[in-house]
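Checked the freezer inventory, then went back to the computational side. Two predictions to log before the end of the day. The first one is the construct we discussed on Monday; recording sequence and tokens without edits.
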Amino acid sequence: MKKSFVLIVLALSVQLAKAQWLQTNGPYGGDVKCFAFSGSTIFAGTIGGGIFSSSNNGGLWKSVNTGLSSTRIYSLAVRGTTLFAGTENGIFRSVNNGTSWTALNNFLPDTDINTLAVIGTTVFAGTNGGGIFLSSDNGNSWTAANNGLSNLHVFSLAVSGTTLFAGTNGGGVFLSADNGSSWTAVNNGLATVDIFSQVVSGTTLFAGTHGDGVFVSADNGSNWKKMNNGLLNTDVISLAVIGSQVFAGTDEGVFMSADFGDNWTGVNTGLTATLNYSLASNGTTLFAGTTGGGIFISADSGNNWTAANNGLACTNNLSLAISSNSVFAGTLGYGVFSSADNGNSWAPVSSGLTNRNVYSLGVSGTNIFAGTYGSGVFLSADNGSSWSATGNGSMGPRIVCFAFPGSYVFAGSWGQGVFLSPDNGYSWYDVNSGLYNRYINSLLASGTNLFAATLGDGVFVSADNGDHWTTANNGLTSLSVRSLVKSGTSIFAGTSGGGVFVSTDEGGHWTAVNNGITNKDINCLTVAGTAIFAGTSKGGIFVSVDNGASWTAVSTGLPATDINSFASNGTNLFAGTGGSGIWKRPLSEIAGLHPHDQNSDIRVYPNPASDKVTVSTTASSFKEITVTILDIAGKKVMTCKFENTNKAETDISSLSKGIYVLQIQIGSETENRKLVIQ
């Protein structure tokens, strides 16, 4: 019996049909924007990780995002047993305690929903540029309610009885006493019109402002008085009340007033993340949602705080690295974490790291370098146990990338170009002659050449360790280049909007290679063996095993979020996301079997094939050979059986071009091989 077939060389494991990305157990934390309380359940809205719920007062969190197409949550509100979520793409509703969500955007503009409030049966939504909308039918339809509202950038809503207050960005505070039918500005005494936050305590209204601290009104907003004594930071992002105590969240921690704002005291013991997006009270317990550090809880009026992030995997991970069999993750706002067990557990390793906004990680020998936002480069020589600042703490606003040719260390910054250290970070020198764009996204060392990817001016190359730079953009039609990697003799460039380009002559010429890439906003690239991976902005991950000639999506299980970083330890590929933590997947599932896994007695040829493929064995005795073909999604597309033979040739001209798995069973043994239809 004889059949022929054409296949594409990419070996996936036999479990491909069930293969998908799995979220690692951390690092826990992230950007927490808002809270809501429904019965005994606490809900937390995050930036990038969607919504989490806890039924044990923050002891354990679980993701509750089914049906939620946007994972940037700006506001939450509860009406009875119904939960509303305001996102960057409208409003969602859950009627089953967060188990599932439904979009509610009828007559609602596609805009950020900054704030939500409820009065009786009416739900109000404050938007970023569209003003206020209301719904009297549980969110099924929405109506604009902007009569008298001269500023449509609504940042906060607060309810006092039947009166609704709207805090705006640029227009101060507005009041409505008729359920949103009309609005009146109430700004007498307000020294600023940029209102971040509001809270009501009895008959007293508090307003948190941008740059002018807290204002207090005891007459429904008719008159305001500045109350900042002891308030060391006057950007008041959030406010909350417990009894007679008022709490103000700033980018330098939390302050408390026990006398209605006359005096403020810092209450930050244990609060290791000081930028507070949100404050909320539930009984006598105070919750703080921070930037990067996740959630903190205080049961004693803010005197002591404890992190409550178990299960809250929504960190923003811009960088990953492998050192000494451990995976290192750099986060925004919460420093560096490491895992020695393939992501099953993570531990913070930030001792001495005075700046916790880590944009980049690089490894050179036993040294790990961390690039930060505003504090230059830190170095760890003991696998992350301790960190120390290197020679120049003013190297630019963001250190976003590293390269390590020979004994040199290069660091790329946003705004001040490229820096060189010849002595492992003890001293740094800027090397920018000819580099007229100083916004560097990626660095790549290739032989004697150093490449720099820039924001808007393409790729620059230096052949003299950065002393002189020239452009290398021939054929590069997208000049906002975010990532550079090298595979064999080819250099790949990932761009913003233009997809992936390849150069086989050290940057002399570039060619777009986007066959199969459906999202061309490329954030990061990495190479694992002969496979090249591209991470996109909310478009998943793509892999190529033919030097970029074709790409296949390998995103099953991943949330719709930014893929910011990659790292591979030879067994797993790790992906750092923009707000959904770190994910992993075995390389064997997506890049095929390693050569040492294959039986040398079995031959598959030609490989790749054009119209036929032959499977043969060197065994002297004839056996039954079964050849099964799976597509990239794991779906079986063909099965052929051959009896009493040691050679099977099959015609599969009916199959489309693409990536397949060839599953070969000879007798009782089964093996998978990489194959490609072309």
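The second is the one RB wanted added to the comparison set:
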Amino acid sequence: MIQGRGKRARSEERKKPASFGRFFALLRKKQILETLGAFIAGGWLILEVVHWILVDHYHFPEGSIDITLVLIIGALLGTLVWKWFGSTGKRLGNVRIEVLLVPLIILATIAIAAILGADIAGLQAPRMIILIVAGCLAVAWIIFKSLQWAIRSPVTGAGNAAARGDRPPEPREEKNEEHGWKESIVVLPFRNMSADPEQEYFCEGLAEEIINALTKIQELRVVARTSAFFFKGKDTDIRDIGRALNVKTVLEGSVRKSGSRLRITAQLISVDDGFHLWSDRFDRELSDIFIIQDEITLAVVANLKLKLLKEETAAVTKRYTKNLAAYNLSLKGRYFADTLVKNNFETAISYFIQAIAEDPDYGAAYAGIAKCYSLMGFFHHLPAIEAFPKAREAALKALNIDENLSEAHSALGLVHMYYDWDWIGAESAFRKALKLNPNSDSIITEYAEFLMIQGKIEEGFLEAKRSLDLNPLSLSANLNVGFFHLRTGQPEKAKEQLEKALEINPGHPLAVWLIGQTMILGSKYEEGLREIEKAVVLSQNNTMILAGLGWAYAVAGKEKEARQVLKDLDEKARREYPRPYLHAKIYCALGEKENALDWLEKAFKYHDVSIVTLASDETLAGLRAEPRFMEILKKMQLR
């Protein structure tokens, strides 16, 4: 026992120097020692000036030295508290400790200095008045911060937002440490102050360019575009937005464009207290837009005290074209592409083509075309055999110009995944894209889908959750996490997540359909069918949701209704691009294995994008022992 205590004592002795070393390093990191040194040197110099010049030469009262010393000590204490707590982010509730303490230190310093001044003047009554006033102000400040703490609590804060008639979604849990994020920010769409409403594309494009630059910083959590733009046009308090998105800072601004002149304002705001950490106004020529973007981005980095790696600095300030006309056309292209609507994809591609005509070496414009075609293939706006080869061609042209375009790599990854079934090539493309742009929620989502297809469900689910952390108000991110729960046989968890998606976009047919599917999987057939039937109406007979209804009818034993859906799908196939995989699911649920396999072979032939889920699709589990099924898996290299 004694020997054991001796070992512990020696161990503790060894730990002390290391502990002191860490403490000393912490003092250096927070610049405490430098601050002390500066105040000692500067304070001594100020005291000498007061002593030898003001007191000795100009005959100020000797008490002036005491007042000066009190002010120096107060300033020192306030500065040390701010430096010590300011970088930790520690709070009492939602109130930062330094924001609470520093004003109290200033108040106490002023009160003591005032009392000393009153003593010098020979006044006694003011001493009590000063103490009472200082005490009242201190109590008032503490009460104010306590109320602020209470008001910002989730229940009360949400209630206030609701009272304004603009209730933001409930706060989402933040995973900063888990993902290595040290700071967090949301970039709101810049307000259009121009007379021309068509300049919206420019304002949104400016915000999106800043978002895209900041996402390349590993240690910074940047809320994705969908969630950032969720609050556009809504009179929502900055602190409510910050709380809903779980970020520490908000960047907002405005743009006034008149001819070739620009006036851009930008403000970086702390969510905790609403204080402006930085603000600036840029009155420049339109040709200076690239410089302005860099200045705003680097100002954010500097004020968040982020230390960039060499490659991060290069990525953040990288310019993809020097041609202003090409840049402007590219912004228009992205504005339309972000809607994910078929006709708008076509409009976006036309703008990207015009941008390339202005600047043939504009790799980012080729990447935009590649992403448009790959998404048109994914959403069945074009047949896969038409969309994905065009996406590949544009992506390779983009990478030939600039091999560091993350969007081009991710578009190529989609081609490899959904069309080539080249899993090694897909993984390589997605990994390159993520290395270049580690916090892009769209690339993370695509990689999550890849992992799920490969049977790496847990890894894929973690990536899907990371995408949701970056884009908490995104309908698709919430649906994706719900879909993962469905794939892993957890219908109740899926339903819970899908209901969160409905909070964001009430009545959205995809969410309603998937909720109905969770009920079907839980054997609640009548309830599930009602939900899916409602989703079909809401979606105006969307092919995928209609097929989902056919599958649900078959599972619920309503054969007649299921066969009617098959007829409806056949009719739609005459007007739209065929979706043979959907037929296969319904036939499998009806127990008609040969018909189901016939349709799966058609899906293989036409590269129906849904066939990539073949190995993990539980609705087709009844076919897994069939030789024709296994042959398809073998051809797709999914076995």
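For RB: The chain has four domains: 31-151, 176-319, 325-555, 556-639. The domain at 176-319 is CATH 3.40.50.10070 (Rossmann fold). Let me know if you want it refolded.
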